[in-house]
Every structure is written in C-alpha cells, then in structure tokens.
C-alpha cells in the first residue's frame, strides 16, 4: 500500500512542479495549490483508514482484510471508466491464458454494465455460441449465484472451469418476457482467431474473430494458402471480415494492418505523458501485392478491429462495408503489480486513426452501409448501443454516436454485407468513395 500512496502523492507533486516553471509571479498560487492538494489527499486517505479500521473492529463477523482491500481497489478503479480494472493473481493468470489463445470455459467476450455481466459477442464454434448465447445478453446468475456485487474478474473466473463440467446461466434478453435458463458444458477453448476460404475461385475470404498472439501468423497462413489455391490472374481480391470482433492486442492490430500496407502510419496513441504518446507505422510490406480489399464491420467491431479498419480506410487501401463500429477508442496498459498481487489494466491513452480522427464514443462509419434483414425473433436485440452508451465512458472528441446493427445471418446467401463485398470485388457494383476496383467478368 505504501508504494501506491507514494505514487499518488508523487503525481500530485509532479503536477505542481510542472506548474512552477510558468513564472515567479505565480509562485504563491502554485504553493497554495500544492498545499491544498496535499491536504485534500491526506484527508481522503485518513478517511479511508478510519473506515477500514471501523469495519475491521465493528463488523458483525470478522472480515477478510485481503478481500476488503481488493474491494477498495475495485471501487476506486470503477470510478474511472468501463475498461480500467484490477485483476487479482487468478484474474491476471486467466487473462494471460486468453491472450495466448487457449483456456477452459464457455467462449464469450463479456463486459460489466450496471453491475451485471453483458455479452459483447460469443466466439465462433464455442459452447456459448452453440448454446444460443447472443450479443447483448445480460448474465444475472451463474449456478444460482447472483452476479450483482461481483467484479468482472470474479464473474469470469466462475464461468471458466475444467472441460466437461456443466454450468448454468440465467440470462436476461431484450424482447424476452422472462429470464432464460441456459445449461452449457465447458470445453477447452482454443481460440482460432483466423478462418479463411477461397470463394468462387476468385476471392479470398478471411474472418478474424479476435486479436490474440496468434492472429498475425494465422492471417499470413491464410493469405499464403489462398494465393496457392487461386492464381494471381484470377484473384479479384480479399474480403476481411471483422464483424463482431471485440478487439485484443494493439501490436496485433498494427501487424495485421501492416500485412495490407507497404508504408504509412497505422495508429497513434495520445495520453497524459510523453511515453503514452506514440505512433505506430506499417512494417513488412503488403503481402497481398496490392490486391483489392474489402473490410466488413458492424456494431460489434471494437477496439483493435477499429484500428485496422480506420488505418486501411484512411490510406484508401480498403472499402468498408457494413454498419458503424462500436466506438472503443481507448488503450489499456497492463501493469503487473508484483508476485501474488495480480495486475492493473489501466486506460492510459486514446488512439487515433492516421488522419488524426478519434474513434472514442463515435466509431467508424462504413463507406457503404448495408443493413441486414433481421428475423423476427432477433428484432429489438440485433443492435449494440456502443461505447457511447456505457456508463462512465471517456467523452468523444465531438458529437457522440450510438452503436448500430450487429446481426450477422448464419447463412451466407442471406448475408447482404458479404454479398455486397463479393459484388464490389467482382465489379458488379461500384463504390465512388472507395479505392478503385478492377472491373472483371463474373464467373459462372
């Protein structure tokens, strides 16, 4: 604890020292502000100590000090923004498993909203997806235990477990008259972040479901395999499907963008400190050799997905088709806190596309908007409200935009966005705002 307090006080002191260089005339004001800040900080710390001691001595049962401290840390971080969070040692270990791409559990991407766990998206071909869990579902109970009052890490930890063990979830779904009970058998989740196929003998289709440590390698293998299957003279281009991709690692977003760009900035981050203000540029060269590119996005495309989409559009390397993205334009830095203490995922910067545009609470609008036909049973819950609807979100640099449709038809023939991408690459339709596409005969 002493180290944490020193950091807080050091931050206040540093701010005052920075102000002190303005000029001698403001010295008295700086000194007064410094004293007031210190006084206020110490008052709050004393109050915390008083409450902590009162709970220890007077609570009806002897409390667990470590749980009290973890609760206090979680409470402090929850006052920041929806994406900053504390992970205890187990939560930190679970997150490392997730970014490596293999863990035991259900296969859902979740966030915390109003004290409950909300599904961002189920991962393709996982127990959650097979059981019918949908984007926007709110999980209220896990094995009859109420989630209200748990941290996100605690809830996620309860959903993970050994393969072949059963879990029961109670789910609230918009449009449903009553909560839905769902029984799921856990499996080893091997997140395969990239899937691909050759479509019609002339188009390479690549779906990226998340950005973990295996994504760039998977993308390179996909392009190499498609290039072998379709001769260069017949390859009309690629469709990269980022729909309902919740994001992941920043370095993977940069390297995926680099696979389609010869040069140029991919993304920049801007924070309070110089070290958090960085620019990331393409490296390695365009491995598709300049083939036309269409990127599919929707209301479930977030974070790293938005970085890739924004970079490729700003450089006029791709045409974006679909609906407005989620609008998560902030970077979380993982800060390990030492052996046994877990880690802190702290929002340290906003990110900006190469043109200098912030995505935060605004998202990225497609070049060509395509709305899907939503079946009656999914109407009313086929849209995600986006970052702008999350309580405590960072404000946008401009007018905030709500989310958009996130429904993807399970049958490709019903997928209007995907078919629009195929038609664009084959020259059946033309997008005046996007990169030029070579007109060519439609294969039959």
From TrEMBL:
Gene Ontology terms: biological process: proteolysis; signal transduction
Superkingdom: Bacteria
Coiled-coil ranges per UniProt: none
Lineage, highest ranks first: Bacteria, Pseudomonadati, Pseudomonadota, Alphaproteobacteria, Hyphomicrobiales
Organism expressing this protein natively: Bradyrhizobium archetypum
Protein name: S41 family peptidase
Assigned protein family: Belongs to the peptidase S41A family.
A single GO cellular-component term on record: outer membrane-bounded periplasmic space
Keywords: Hydrolase, Protease, Serine protease
Keyword Protease recorded: yes
One Pfam family in the UniProt entry: PDZ_2
């Amino acid at each position: 604890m002493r180290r944490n307090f020193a950091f807080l006080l050091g931050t206040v002191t540093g701010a005052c020292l920075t102000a002190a260089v303005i000029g001698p005339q403001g010295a008295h004001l700086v000194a007064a502000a410094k004293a007031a800040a210190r006084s206020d900080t110490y008052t709050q710390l004393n109050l915390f100590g008083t409450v902590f001691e009162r709970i220890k001595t007077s609570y009806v049962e002897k409390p667990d000090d470590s749980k009290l401290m973890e609760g206090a840390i979680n409470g402090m971080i929850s006052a920041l923004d929806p994406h900053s969070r504390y992970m205890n040692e187990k939560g930190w270990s679970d997150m490392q498993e997730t970014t490596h791409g293999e863990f035991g559990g259900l296969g859902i991407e979740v966030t915390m909203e109003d004290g409950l766990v909300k599904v961002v998206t189920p991962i393709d071909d996982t127990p959650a997806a097979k059981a019918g869990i949908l984007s926007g579902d709110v999980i209220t109970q896990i094995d009859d235990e109420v989630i209200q009052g748990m941290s996100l890490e605690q809830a996620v930890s309860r959903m993970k477990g050994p393969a072949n063990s059963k879990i029961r979830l109670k789910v609230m779904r918009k449009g449903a008259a009553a909560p839905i009970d769902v029984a799921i058998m856990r499996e080893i989740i091997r997140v395969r972040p990239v899937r691909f196929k050759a479509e019609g003998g002339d188009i390479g289709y690549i779906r990226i479901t998340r950005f973990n440590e295996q994504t760039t390698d998977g993308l390179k293998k996909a392009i190499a395999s498609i290039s072998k299957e379709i001769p260069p003279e017949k390859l009309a281009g690629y469709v990269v499907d980022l729909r309902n991709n919740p994001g992941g690692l920043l370095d993977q977003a940069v390297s995926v963008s680099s696979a389609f760009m010869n040069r140029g900035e991919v993304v920049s981050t801007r924070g309070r400190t110089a070290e958090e203000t960085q620019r990331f540029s393409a490296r390695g060269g365009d491995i598709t050799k300049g083939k036309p590119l269409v990127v599919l996005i929707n209301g479930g495309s977030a974070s790293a997905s938005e970085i890739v989409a924004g970079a490729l559009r700003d450089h006029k390397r791709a045409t974006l088709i679909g609906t407005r993205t989620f609008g998560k334009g902030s970077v979380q830095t993982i800060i390990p806190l030492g052996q046994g203490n877990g880690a802190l995922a702290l929002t340290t910067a906003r990110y900006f596309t190469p043109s200098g545009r912030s995505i935060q609470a605004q998202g990225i609008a497609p070049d060509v908007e395509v709305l899907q036909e939503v079946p009656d049973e999914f109407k009313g819950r086929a849209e995600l409200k986006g970052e702008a609807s999350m309580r405590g979100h960072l404000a946008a640099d401009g007018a905030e935009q709500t989310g958009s449709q996130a429904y993807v038809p399970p049958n490709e023939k019903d997928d209007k966005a995907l078919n629009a991408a195929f038609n664009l690459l084959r020259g059946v339709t033309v997008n005046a705002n996007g990169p030029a596409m070579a007109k060519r005969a439609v294969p039959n």
